[in-house]
Design a protein that fits this description.
Blueprint (H helix, E strand, L loop, with lengths): L1 H27 L11 E3 L1 E3 L3 E15 L2 E5 L4 E4 L10 E2 L4 E5 L2 H28 L1 H12 L16 H9 L2 H16 L2 E3 L4 E6 L6 E2 L4 E6 L4 E8 L11 E6 L5 E13 L5 E8 L9 E18 L8 E6 L2 E6 L1 E5 L3 E5 L6 E3 L12 E3 L11
Parallel strand pairs: 1-22
Antiparallel strand pairs: 2-21, 3-12, 3-16, 4-11, 5-7, 5-10, 6-9, 7-8, 9-11, 12-15, 13-14, 13-16, 14-15, 16-20, 17-18, 19-20
Length: 377
């Protein structure tokens, strides 16, 4: 029985081997399928050289053109004024920003002025006797001397004898001592040199202010500047007074500015030059981020294409007899998305959109737009 089973298994293996061999022979004799050539459809454009305006894109933040950092040169208590010293508070030119209590110092100034007045009064009898020709001049000075007003300038001395006499009585030194005190007294009050807005306030009413302490910042909100860095290639093209178009990030607002200043030196690290754009508008705020478009120059006999169409070898693809080929070009300006090229002959058919996996000799078919017409029955 065992021999019969082994014999049957052997026969089955032989039959299976024969059938498998027949299948292999049949598959080997089958003809290989011929792969159809794939022709990619591409978008093309015919070159026509024109004059391309070179517009330099730059960006930056607005800063107030006129800014005043407020510091105290004297010490005292911050007195309350007509307006609260708070950020956002507006002041007109000449209005008091900060007033520090100067009652004690004012008394010392008045005392020095009184001493000066007394010193001049004491020499008047001697002037009447020894210098009658200058007596009236000094008498008129005393008559115009008001302790509640700024000390008037001393009369001009016309002779050496007069100069020696007046100086010997310490009148000149007392006068300049008084003027020095008056100058310091004026520092107890800080006024706005221009109309603007307080953007930073570091003290409040009743605060003890110390000499050298920063009090806040005050800016002119009517005019701003934006600092932009431009490549040194265009350093000679930037001109003061040239108009500049500015946009916000959302492209919803457009402003017009002018180039107010151009730095004379180039940054050695970045090889850029700094330009300052002046702009005025009621909607502008300090710190606002804007994009600027500066008209640098116009490039004649050039074309503008997408940057992704330019190869690293400074070549572009062209279409010749349904095949892709490459030609050498000369890039003259790069923007974020575009590149301006020269040395591309008129009439050359180039790619309008990039083709993935493109290579020289690739078979392509230019895309042709067809107009659909509706037939009415």
């Amino acid at each position: 029985m065992r021999k019969i089973i082994l014999s049957v298994i052997g026969v089955l293996l032989i039959i299976a081997s024969f059938l498998f061999a027949q299948k292999l022979i049949a598959d080997k004799n089958k003809p290989k399928p011929v792969q159809a050539k794939v022709v990619k459809t591409v978008f093309t454009d015919t070159v026509q050289n024109t004059t391309i305006p070179i517009v330099i894109a730059a960006n930056g933040n607005l800063e107030a053109k006129r800014r005043l950092e407020l510091y105290s040169e004297v010490q005292g208590i911050f007195k309350r004024g007509n307006k609260l010293f708070k950020p956002g508070q507006e002041y007109r030119a000449g209005q008091t920003l900060i007033k520090i209590d100067a009652a004690e110092y004012y008394a010392s100034v008045q005392s020095s002025k009184s001493n000066l007045y007394n010193s001049i009064s004491a020499i008047m009898p001697d002037l009447r006797l020894d210098f009658p020709d200058i007596y009236d001049k000094w008498q008129n000075y005393l008559n115009g001397f008001d302790l509640n007003k700024t000390t008037p300038k001393l009369p001009e001395m016309t002779s050496d004898k007069e100069n020696y006499f007046i100086t010997g009585r310490s009148i000149v030194s007392n006068y300049y001592n008084v003027k020095n005190l008056e100058q310091r007294l004026a520092k107890y009050s800080i006024t706005a040199p221009f109309s603007g807005t307080l953007t930073e306030a570091l003290v409040t009413e009743g605060t003890l202010i110390r000499s050298g302490q920063k009090l806040g910042e005050f800016i002119d909100t009517s005019i701003y500047e934006m600092e932009v860095a431009i490549s040194k290639t265009y350093a000679s093209l930037l001109k003061v007074g040239e108009s500049v178009t500015l946009n916000n990030l959302d492209k919803t607002e457009t402003y017009t500015g002018t180039v107010s200043r151009v730095n004379a030196s180039i940054d050695p690290t970045t090889q850029t030059i700094t330009a300052y754009i002046e702009v005025k508008h009621e909607n502008l705020k300090e710190g606002m981020y804007l994009e600027a478009n500066l008209n640098a120059k116009k490039e004649s006999d050039a074309i503008e294409i997408d940057r992704n169409l330019l190869l690293e070898s400074e070549q572009i693809f062209v279409v010749k007899d349904s095949l892709l080929d490459v030609i050498d070009v000369k890039p003259v300006y790069f923007s974020d998305t575009k590149v301006v090229l020269k040395n591309v002959p008129n009439g050359t058919v180039i790619l309008k959109k990039a083709v993935p996996g493109a290579y020289s000799g690739m078979l392509v078919k230019p895309f042709k737009e067809t107009s659909n017409t509706n037939n009415k029955y």
